[in-house]
## 1
Amino acid sequence: MDKTRLGIASAMMNLARVGGNMIGTGMVLLLVAIFIGRVRIESSQFPALMSVISIALGVSLLLTISGSYFSYSRGNIHPEGRGQETTAKKDG
Protein backbone atom coordinates (compact mmCIF):
# COMPACT_ATOMS: atom_id res chain seq x y z
CA MET A 1 0.00 0.00 0.00
CA ASP A 2 1.15 3.49 -0.80
CA LYS A 3 2.43 5.25 2.31
CA THR A 4 0.27 8.29 1.60
CA ARG A 5 -2.86 6.17 2.07
CA LEU A 6 -1.93 4.42 5.31
CA GLY A 7 -4.05 6.82 7.35
CA ILE A 8 -7.11 6.07 5.20
CA ALA A 9 -6.51 2.31 5.49
CA SER A 10 -6.14 2.58 9.26
CA ALA A 11 -9.35 4.60 9.54
CA MET A 12 -11.26 2.07 7.43
CA MET A 13 -10.02 -0.83 9.56
CA ASN A 14 -11.03 0.96 12.76
CA LEU A 15 -14.42 1.83 11.28
CA ALA A 16 -15.03 -1.81 10.42
CA ARG A 17 -13.92 -2.92 13.91
CA VAL A 18 -16.12 -0.41 15.75
CA GLY A 19 -19.05 -1.10 13.42
CA GLY A 20 -18.74 -4.84 14.08
CA ASN A 21 -18.67 -4.22 17.83
CA MET A 22 -21.78 -2.05 17.62
CA ILE A 23 -23.67 -4.61 15.53
CA GLY A 24 -22.68 -7.42 17.91
CA THR A 25 -23.72 -5.45 20.97
CA GLY A 26 -27.03 -4.52 19.36
CA MET A 27 -27.69 -8.14 18.44
CA VAL A 28 -27.10 -9.31 22.01
CA LEU A 29 -29.28 -6.53 23.44
CA LEU A 30 -32.07 -7.42 21.01
CA LEU A 31 -31.87 -11.10 21.99
CA VAL A 32 -31.91 -10.21 25.69
CA ALA A 33 -34.98 -8.01 25.14
CA ILE A 34 -36.75 -10.82 23.25
CA PHE A 35 -35.88 -13.77 25.49
CA ILE A 36 -35.59 -12.15 28.93
CA GLY A 37 -37.41 -8.84 28.74
CA ARG A 38 -37.29 -6.04 31.25
CA VAL A 39 -36.70 -8.06 34.38
CA ARG A 40 -33.80 -8.39 36.74
CA ILE A 41 -31.51 -11.26 35.74
CA GLU A 42 -31.70 -13.77 38.56
CA SER A 43 -31.20 -17.50 38.77
CA SER A 44 -34.67 -18.07 37.32
CA GLN A 45 -33.57 -16.32 34.09
CA PHE A 46 -30.39 -18.39 33.64
CA PRO A 47 -31.91 -20.79 31.07
CA ALA A 48 -33.10 -17.84 28.96
CA LEU A 49 -29.70 -16.18 29.35
CA MET A 50 -27.99 -19.36 28.15
CA SER A 51 -30.33 -19.37 25.14
CA VAL A 52 -29.32 -15.79 24.35
CA ILE A 53 -25.63 -16.66 24.61
CA SER A 54 -26.03 -19.77 22.45
CA ILE A 55 -27.97 -17.92 19.74
CA ALA A 56 -25.55 -14.97 19.73
CA LEU A 57 -22.54 -17.27 19.40
CA GLY A 58 -24.27 -19.28 16.67
CA VAL A 59 -25.09 -16.15 14.65
CA SER A 60 -21.53 -14.89 15.12
CA LEU A 61 -20.16 -18.23 13.95
CA LEU A 62 -22.34 -18.17 10.83
CA LEU A 63 -21.28 -14.60 10.03
CA THR A 64 -17.61 -15.51 10.52
CA ILE A 65 -17.84 -18.59 8.31
CA SER A 66 -19.73 -16.74 5.58
CA GLY A 67 -17.28 -13.82 5.69
CA SER A 68 -14.34 -16.21 5.48
CA TYR A 69 -15.92 -18.01 2.53
CA PHE A 70 -16.56 -14.82 0.58
CA SER A 71 -13.09 -13.50 1.36
CA TYR A 72 -11.51 -16.75 0.16
CA SER A 73 -13.73 -17.05 -2.92
CA ARG A 74 -12.82 -13.60 -4.25
CA GLY A 75 -9.25 -14.80 -4.68
CA ASN A 76 -6.15 -12.70 -4.86
CA ILE A 77 -7.19 -9.26 -6.06
CA HIS A 78 -3.66 -7.87 -6.23
CA PRO A 79 -1.34 -8.39 -9.18
CA GLU A 80 1.32 -11.05 -8.82
CA GLY A 81 4.28 -9.87 -6.77
CA ARG A 82 2.42 -7.01 -5.13
CA GLY A 83 2.47 -7.11 -1.33
CA GLN A 84 5.79 -8.95 -1.33
CA GLU A 85 7.69 -5.70 -1.75
CA THR A 86 7.60 -4.90 1.95
CA THR A 87 8.94 -8.32 2.98
CA ALA A 88 11.70 -8.09 0.36
CA LYS A 89 12.77 -4.70 1.73
CA LYS A 90 12.85 -6.03 5.30
CA ASP A 91 14.97 -9.01 4.33
CA GLY A 92 17.42 -7.02 2.25
## 2
Amino acid sequence: MLTSQKLSYLQAKRSVIAAVFLGLIFSTFQIIIDLYDQRSESNKTITQVIDIMRETAAQAVYNVNEPLARKVVNGLFQYKPVRLVRIVDDELNETMAEMERPKTREVSP
Protein backbone atom coordinates (compact mmCIF):
# COMPACT_ATOMS: atom_id res chain seq x y z
CA MET A 1 0.00 0.00 0.00
CA LEU A 2 1.34 3.43 -0.95
CA THR A 3 2.07 5.99 1.75
CA SER A 4 -0.33 8.49 0.17
CA GLN A 5 -3.20 6.00 0.51
CA LYS A 6 -2.75 5.19 4.20
CA LEU A 7 -5.44 6.43 6.56
CA SER A 8 -2.98 8.10 8.94
CA TYR A 9 -1.39 10.01 6.06
CA LEU A 10 -4.77 11.25 4.82
CA GLN A 11 -5.81 12.30 8.34
CA ALA A 12 -2.53 14.16 8.90
CA LYS A 13 -2.87 15.90 5.53
CA ARG A 14 -6.44 17.00 6.28
CA SER A 15 -5.47 18.13 9.78
CA VAL A 16 -2.67 20.32 8.44
CA ILE A 17 -4.95 21.83 5.80
CA ALA A 18 -7.66 22.51 8.40
CA ALA A 19 -5.13 24.06 10.80
CA VAL A 20 -3.74 26.37 8.11
CA PHE A 21 -7.26 27.38 7.02
CA LEU A 22 -8.40 28.09 10.60
CA GLY A 23 -5.16 29.98 11.28
CA LEU A 24 -5.78 32.21 8.28
CA ILE A 25 -9.36 32.89 9.33
CA PHE A 26 -8.45 33.73 12.94
CA SER A 27 -5.49 35.86 11.83
CA THR A 28 -7.77 37.84 9.50
CA PHE A 29 -10.23 38.48 12.32
CA GLN A 30 -7.40 39.58 14.63
CA ILE A 31 -6.04 41.99 12.01
CA ILE A 32 -9.51 43.51 11.53
CA ILE A 33 -9.98 43.91 15.29
CA ASP A 34 -6.52 45.51 15.62
CA LEU A 35 -7.32 47.90 12.76
CA TYR A 36 -10.50 49.11 14.46
CA ASP A 37 -8.68 49.44 17.80
CA GLN A 38 -5.91 51.49 16.16
CA ARG A 39 -8.40 53.78 14.44
CA SER A 40 -10.27 54.26 17.70
CA GLU A 41 -7.03 55.09 19.53
CA SER A 42 -6.02 57.57 16.82
CA ASN A 43 -9.41 59.28 16.98
CA LYS A 44 -9.16 59.48 20.77
CA THR A 45 -5.70 61.06 20.56
CA ILE A 46 -6.84 63.62 18.00
CA THR A 47 -9.85 64.50 20.14
CA GLN A 48 -7.61 65.02 23.17
CA VAL A 49 -5.25 67.27 21.20
CA ILE A 50 -8.14 69.34 19.88
CA ASP A 51 -9.58 69.67 23.39
CA ILE A 52 -6.21 70.92 24.64
CA MET A 53 -6.01 73.59 21.92
CA ARG A 54 -9.69 74.60 21.98
CA GLU A 55 -9.32 77.22 24.72
CA THR A 56 -6.34 78.90 23.04
CA ALA A 57 -8.11 78.89 19.67
CA ALA A 58 -11.21 80.44 21.24
CA GLN A 59 -9.05 83.11 22.85
CA ALA A 60 -7.41 83.88 19.49
CA VAL A 61 -10.80 84.33 17.83
CA TYR A 62 -12.29 86.33 20.70
CA ASN A 63 -9.34 88.76 20.70
CA VAL A 64 -9.03 88.67 16.87
CA ASN A 65 -5.41 87.68 17.37
CA GLU A 66 -4.16 86.22 14.10
CA PRO A 67 -0.59 85.50 15.30
CA LEU A 68 -2.03 83.42 18.16
CA ALA A 69 -4.35 81.65 15.71
CA ARG A 70 -1.34 80.78 13.52
CA LYS A 71 0.48 79.41 16.57
CA VAL A 72 -2.50 77.17 17.36
CA VAL A 73 -2.60 75.93 13.76
CA ASN A 74 1.14 75.27 13.77
CA GLY A 75 0.86 73.44 17.09
CA LEU A 76 -1.92 71.18 15.82
CA PHE A 77 0.05 70.47 12.66
CA GLN A 78 2.82 68.89 14.74
CA TYR A 79 0.60 65.79 14.90
CA LYS A 80 0.87 63.82 11.67
CA PRO A 81 -2.75 62.55 11.62
CA VAL A 82 -4.04 66.14 11.43
CA ARG A 83 -4.71 67.00 7.78
CA LEU A 84 -6.61 70.28 7.99
CA VAL A 85 -6.78 73.03 10.59
CA ARG A 86 -8.88 76.12 10.10
CA ILE A 87 -9.71 78.77 12.68
CA VAL A 88 -12.70 80.84 11.64
CA ASP A 89 -14.24 83.89 13.29
CA ASP A 90 -17.96 83.10 13.08
CA GLU A 91 -19.08 86.70 13.58
CA LEU A 92 -16.90 88.11 10.81
CA ASN A 93 -17.07 84.90 8.75
CA GLU A 94 -13.33 85.29 8.27
CA THR A 95 -10.63 82.60 8.28
CA MET A 96 -7.96 83.72 10.72
CA ALA A 97 -5.52 80.88 10.12
CA GLU A 98 -5.56 77.75 7.99
CA MET A 99 -3.18 74.98 7.04
CA GLU A 100 -3.77 71.81 5.03
CA ARG A 101 -1.56 68.78 4.55
CA PRO A 102 -1.88 66.86 1.25
CA LYS A 103 -3.63 63.53 1.61
CA THR A 104 -1.22 60.59 1.38
CA ARG A 105 -1.57 56.81 1.40
CA GLU A 106 1.34 56.52 3.85
CA VAL A 107 0.66 54.45 6.98
CA SER A 108 2.24 55.79 10.14
CA PRO A 109 3.78 53.34 12.64
## 3
Amino acid sequence: MALYLIGLVLSRLAKAGTGLTPETEAAPSEIEVLGKLSPSPDAARKWAALQQDISAQTSHGRSVNVDPQSLVLDALLKMNAAAGDS
Protein backbone atom coordinates (compact mmCIF):
# COMPACT_ATOMS: atom_id res chain seq x y z
CA MET A 1 0.00 0.00 0.00
CA ALA A 2 2.78 2.46 0.90
CA LEU A 3 4.60 1.77 -2.35
CA TYR A 4 1.40 2.40 -4.31
CA LEU A 5 0.94 5.74 -2.54
CA ILE A 6 4.56 6.71 -3.23
CA GLY A 7 4.01 6.02 -6.92
CA LEU A 8 0.81 8.04 -6.85
CA VAL A 9 2.41 11.11 -5.29
CA LEU A 10 5.32 10.94 -7.73
CA SER A 11 2.97 10.78 -10.71
CA ARG A 12 1.00 13.74 -9.31
CA LEU A 13 4.27 15.67 -8.97
CA ALA A 14 5.22 14.89 -12.56
CA LYS A 15 1.82 16.00 -13.83
CA ALA A 16 1.90 19.19 -11.76
CA GLY A 17 5.12 20.28 -13.47
CA THR A 18 3.39 20.10 -16.83
CA GLY A 19 0.53 22.28 -15.63
CA LEU A 20 -1.95 19.48 -14.96
CA THR A 21 -3.18 20.02 -11.43
CA PRO A 22 -5.33 17.40 -9.70
CA GLU A 23 -9.09 17.96 -9.79
CA THR A 24 -9.34 17.31 -6.07
CA GLU A 25 -6.75 17.66 -3.35
CA ALA A 26 -5.71 14.51 -1.50
CA ALA A 27 -4.60 16.68 1.44
CA PRO A 28 -5.02 20.32 2.43
CA SER A 29 -2.75 22.63 0.36
CA GLU A 30 -1.62 19.74 -1.85
CA ILE A 31 -1.78 21.80 -5.04
CA GLU A 32 0.42 24.49 -3.48
CA VAL A 33 2.99 21.91 -2.37
CA LEU A 34 2.98 20.22 -5.79
CA GLY A 35 3.56 23.59 -7.42
CA LYS A 36 6.55 24.33 -5.20
CA LEU A 37 8.15 20.91 -5.71
CA SER A 38 7.43 20.71 -9.43
CA PRO A 39 7.32 24.24 -10.87
CA SER A 40 8.50 23.46 -14.41
CA PRO A 41 8.62 20.79 -17.12
CA ASP A 42 12.24 20.08 -16.18
CA ALA A 43 11.17 19.32 -12.62
CA ALA A 44 8.33 17.19 -13.97
CA ARG A 45 10.82 15.10 -15.96
CA LYS A 46 12.94 14.66 -12.82
CA TRP A 47 9.94 13.40 -10.81
CA ALA A 48 8.83 11.12 -13.66
CA ALA A 49 12.32 9.61 -13.92
CA LEU A 50 12.40 9.09 -10.17
CA GLN A 51 9.00 7.38 -10.30
CA GLN A 52 10.28 5.00 -12.98
CA ASP A 53 13.45 4.29 -11.00
CA ILE A 54 11.60 3.62 -7.75
CA SER A 55 8.98 1.49 -9.51
CA ALA A 56 11.63 -0.67 -11.17
CA GLN A 57 13.61 -1.01 -7.95
CA THR A 58 10.60 -1.96 -5.86
CA SER A 59 9.37 -4.46 -8.45
CA HIS A 60 12.76 -6.11 -8.51
CA GLY A 61 13.07 -5.96 -4.72
CA ARG A 62 9.73 -7.68 -4.22
CA SER A 63 10.59 -10.37 -6.76
CA VAL A 64 13.77 -11.29 -4.86
CA ASN A 65 12.03 -11.00 -1.46
CA VAL A 66 13.69 -7.82 -0.15
CA ASP A 67 12.16 -6.48 3.07
CA PRO A 68 9.31 -4.11 2.04
CA GLN A 69 10.21 -1.69 4.85
CA SER A 70 13.65 -1.17 3.38
CA LEU A 71 12.13 -0.55 -0.06
CA VAL A 72 9.81 2.11 1.37
CA LEU A 73 12.63 3.74 3.32
CA ASP A 74 14.87 3.83 0.26
CA ALA A 75 12.07 5.35 -1.84
CA LEU A 76 11.41 8.04 0.77
CA LEU A 77 15.10 8.88 1.04
CA LYS A 78 15.32 9.26 -2.74
CA MET A 79 12.26 11.49 -2.74
CA ASN A 80 13.77 13.61 0.04
CA ALA A 81 16.99 14.03 -1.93
CA ALA A 82 15.06 14.97 -5.07
CA ALA A 83 12.96 17.49 -3.14
CA GLY A 84 16.14 19.08 -1.82
CA ASP A 85 17.30 19.60 -5.39
CA SER A 86 14.08 21.46 -6.30
## 4
Amino acid sequence: MTAARPVMPPGVEDRNADVWEPLLAIADAVGWAQEARSAAVELIGAARDAEPSLGIRLLADVRTLFDASTLDPASDRDHPLTPDRAARKPVGRSQGEADQ
Protein backbone atom coordinates (compact mmCIF):
# COMPACT_ATOMS: atom_id res chain seq x y z
CA MET A 1 0.00 0.00 0.00
CA THR A 2 2.85 2.44 0.71
CA ALA A 3 4.08 2.13 -2.89
CA ALA A 4 0.63 2.73 -4.41
CA ARG A 5 0.46 5.63 -6.85
CA PRO A 6 -3.15 5.86 -8.01
CA VAL A 7 -4.04 7.61 -11.25
CA MET A 8 -5.53 11.03 -10.55
CA PRO A 9 -8.72 12.05 -12.33
CA PRO A 10 -8.63 15.18 -14.51
CA GLY A 11 -8.47 18.37 -12.48
CA VAL A 12 -6.94 16.71 -9.41
CA GLU A 13 -3.40 18.02 -9.24
CA ASP A 14 -0.84 19.70 -6.99
CA ARG A 15 -2.03 20.04 -3.37
CA ASN A 16 -5.35 18.36 -4.11
CA ALA A 17 -3.51 15.35 -5.54
CA ASP A 18 -1.38 15.16 -2.39
CA VAL A 19 -4.54 15.05 -0.28
CA TRP A 20 -6.45 12.59 -2.45
CA GLU A 21 -3.61 10.18 -3.28
CA PRO A 22 -3.85 8.02 -0.13
CA LEU A 23 -7.65 8.07 -0.24
CA LEU A 24 -7.71 6.93 -3.86
CA ALA A 25 -5.11 4.24 -3.12
CA ILE A 26 -7.38 2.83 -0.39
CA ALA A 27 -10.42 3.12 -2.65
CA ASP A 28 -8.59 1.23 -5.39
CA ALA A 29 -7.69 -1.53 -2.92
CA VAL A 30 -11.29 -2.02 -1.76
CA GLY A 31 -12.93 -1.69 -5.18
CA TRP A 32 -14.38 1.84 -4.90
CA ALA A 33 -12.10 3.40 -7.50
CA GLN A 34 -14.78 5.07 -9.64
CA GLU A 35 -16.84 6.33 -6.70
CA ALA A 36 -13.77 7.84 -4.99
CA ARG A 37 -12.63 9.59 -8.16
CA SER A 38 -16.09 11.00 -8.77
CA ALA A 39 -16.19 12.26 -5.18
CA ALA A 40 -12.74 13.85 -5.54
CA VAL A 41 -13.71 15.72 -8.70
CA GLU A 42 -17.04 16.86 -7.20
CA LEU A 43 -15.57 18.05 -3.89
CA ILE A 44 -12.62 19.83 -5.48
CA GLY A 45 -14.98 21.57 -7.93
CA ALA A 46 -17.25 22.66 -5.08
CA ALA A 47 -14.29 24.05 -3.14
CA ARG A 48 -13.17 26.08 -6.18
CA ASP A 49 -16.66 27.58 -6.54
CA ALA A 50 -17.05 28.40 -2.84
CA GLU A 51 -16.72 31.91 -1.43
CA PRO A 52 -13.21 32.37 0.00
CA SER A 53 -13.01 32.09 3.78
CA LEU A 54 -12.25 35.08 5.98
CA GLY A 55 -8.69 33.76 6.44
CA ILE A 56 -8.12 33.55 2.68
CA ARG A 57 -9.53 37.06 2.21
CA LEU A 58 -7.26 38.35 4.97
CA LEU A 59 -4.20 36.77 3.32
CA ALA A 60 -5.20 38.32 -0.01
CA ASP A 61 -5.52 41.75 1.64
CA VAL A 62 -2.13 41.39 3.33
CA ARG A 63 -0.58 40.38 0.02
CA THR A 64 -2.14 43.41 -1.67
CA LEU A 65 -1.00 45.65 1.15
CA PHE A 66 2.62 44.60 0.78
CA ASP A 67 2.63 44.29 -3.01
CA ALA A 68 5.29 46.71 -4.23
CA SER A 69 2.99 48.02 -6.95
CA THR A 70 0.39 49.20 -4.41
CA LEU A 71 2.77 51.17 -2.21
CA ASP A 72 3.74 54.71 -3.08
CA PRO A 73 7.44 54.95 -2.26
CA ALA A 74 7.35 58.75 -2.16
CA SER A 75 4.67 58.87 0.55
CA ASP A 76 5.93 55.84 2.49
CA ARG A 77 9.60 56.91 2.62
CA ASP A 78 9.12 59.29 5.54
CA HIS A 79 6.38 57.19 7.15
CA PRO A 80 7.34 53.51 7.41
CA LEU A 81 4.51 50.99 7.34
CA THR A 82 3.63 50.25 10.95
CA PRO A 83 0.84 47.96 12.17
CA ASP A 84 -1.26 51.04 12.95
CA ARG A 85 -0.79 52.49 9.43
CA ALA A 86 -1.47 49.07 7.90
CA ALA A 87 -4.76 48.81 9.80
CA ARG A 88 -5.91 52.17 8.43
CA LYS A 89 -4.78 51.56 4.83
CA PRO A 90 -7.83 50.62 2.68
CA VAL A 91 -7.29 47.34 0.87
CA GLY A 92 -9.55 45.67 -1.66
CA ARG A 93 -12.64 47.81 -0.95
CA SER A 94 -13.70 51.41 -0.88
CA GLN A 95 -13.20 53.35 2.34
CA GLY A 96 -16.24 53.17 4.60
CA GLU A 97 -17.48 49.88 3.16
CA ALA A 98 -18.67 47.67 6.01
CA ASP A 99 -16.92 44.37 6.71
CA GLN A 100 -19.00 41.36 5.85
